[in-house]
Write the structure tokens for this entry.
Amino acid sequence: MTKEKNQLPRSHHASTGRFLSDWALQVRNTGNVPREFLTCFPYLDGVRLGPDPEQNMATAMDQAGLVVPAWARAGGVLGESNDLSMQWHAIWDPASRSALGLIFLDANVRPKRLLLKKSAIALHYFPPVTLAPGGSVDFPAVRVMVYQGDWRPAARVYRAWYDAAYPHVEPPAWFREYQGHLAQMVARLLRETGADAVRLDSLGFYFWACYNPAHHHDTPFGYNEWIKT
């Protein structure tokens, strides 16, 4: 097995003092038997910024994200929104304003786990990959940022990549009219069942006989059929 790290074009934005470098990883099976392996990329150790690294701060992708002391959170699995909701991470020193940002350029959103353990940052991909002899696999690139500031410059770079990776689709007309449709549906549900109120975040529960016997359906699909009428 060989691992080939390919450095992609590097840029320096003089106006912001920001350095960006994209790195990718290709793993190739140079043996004569199939090989199964797990990959960790990138792996950065010795991440200690400023004169007093104990004061470093970092992002924690708890749903919308928040700021915590560096290494206070252990990371998490992408897709578990209270652990890792977005594919980026930033750590910085408030005193010197030195900062490091990592943008994981994975448009396919592969299963992965970010591990944060003082003072290392590691991104693990799973499940294991099996390569036939001569086969290879390319892992998504990571954009490494070295800059001055806090989490905001990294967030802006992530947003720019995100907008390019996932083009926006103009919503259909019915979507723009959905608020009115939803209001009519809730009003109708209140009239038919006598419920005092309806929580929109759990609207479906009001159609279950165990929650609302007054709105019983003969089949599990009664809810869907009711909405159509």
User: Anything to note?
Assistant: Residues 173 and 179 are 12 Å apart (CA to CA). The first strand starts at residue 2 and ends at 13. The chain has two domains: 2-165, 173-228. Helices lie at 152-165, 173-176, 178-193, 222-228.
